[in-house]
């Protein structure tokens, strides 16, 4: 299916931004369709080329900011030099100076998460460098038990983690690590500095990034509201942005 057919004349998407834009893009539910399991997503074959076209059009001011771990996010994006804020901004690559040290979950927390998932078919414990996630998309009735386990773990901690609800999942994340922090750190360095940032996301975890963009005169676009909940329309719109900024389509 072509990009123009994906978007359709009745869903043109938001107005196209200008060449002074910086783009911050969530991954799951934004660039990629949500899958039943986080390891079952399908990466469109055109995604790396699209991201590279955006980089070229915007002078490199494009970043992926995702809850995914760094190696997974970089593999999905498929662009070696693309800035990535992984684990909700807890990990930034290429690394920038001044990043605060962040805690890692104790081994007993990871073990408890694995045991919880093993006892509940259809759930999954995902481990990140600075956090962990309990997924229950295939078993939604397990949500109260997932939250109860995370609260129990936090009760025995030192206050350095918090619970973050997400799409059919619950996550433990370090306090102070959020997508807004990734936006602020990248906006302080070229090629992002001085540009008008736009954050595109689909979940509550993206709101911090959108709020950060607003502080630089930018804004957020929400996939459910601005793209009918369809990552294909996000990708189609991004292709139009690349064309417009490169001189191929009026904004």
TrEMBL record:
**Cofactor(s) of this protein:** Mg(2+)
* Pathway(s) annotated for this protein in UniProt: Glycan biosynthesis; trehalose biosynthesis
- From the UniProt record, list the reaction(s) this protein catalyses: alpha,alpha-trehalose 6-phosphate + H2O = alpha,alpha-trehalose + phosphate
Region annotation (Disordered) ranges: 1-21
Give a short account of what the protein does.
Removes the phosphate from trehalose 6-phosphate to produce free trehalose.
Entry's family note: Belongs to the trehalose phosphatase family.
Q: What is this protein called?
A: Trehalose 6-phosphate phosphatase
Organism whose genome encodes this protein: Pararoseomonas baculiformis
């Amino acid at each position: 299916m072509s990009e123009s057919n994906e978007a359709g004349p009745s869903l043109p998407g938001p107005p196209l931004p200008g060449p002074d834009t910086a783009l911050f893009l969530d991954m799951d539910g934004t660039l990629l369709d949500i899958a039943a399991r986080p390891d079952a997503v399908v990466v469109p074959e055109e995604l790396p080329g699209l991201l590279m076209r955006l980089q070229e059009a915007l002078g490199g001011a494009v970043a992926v900011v995702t809850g995914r771990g760094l190696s997974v996010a970089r593999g999905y994006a498929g662009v070696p030099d693309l800035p990535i804020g992984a684990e909700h901004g807890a990990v930034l690559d290429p690394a920038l100076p001044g990043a605060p040290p962040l805690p890692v979950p104790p081994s007993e927390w990871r073990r408890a998460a694995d045991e919880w998932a093993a006892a509940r078919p259809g759930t999954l414990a995902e481990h990140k460098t600075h956090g962990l996630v309990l997924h229950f998309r295939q078993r939604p009735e397990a949500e109260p038990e997932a939250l109860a386990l995370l609260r129990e773990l936090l009760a025995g901690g030192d206050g350095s983690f918090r619970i973050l609800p997400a799409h059919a999942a619950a996550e433990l994340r370090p306090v102070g690590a959020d997508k807004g922090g990734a936006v602020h750190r990248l906006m302080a360095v070229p090629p992002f500095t001085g540009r008008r940032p736009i954050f595109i996301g689909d979940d509550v975890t993206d709101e911090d990034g959108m709020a950060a963009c607003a502080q630089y005169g930018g804004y957020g676009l929400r996939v459910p509201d601005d793209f009918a909940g369809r990552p294909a329309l996000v990708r189609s719109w991004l292709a139009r942005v690349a064309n417009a900024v490169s001189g191929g389509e009026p904004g």
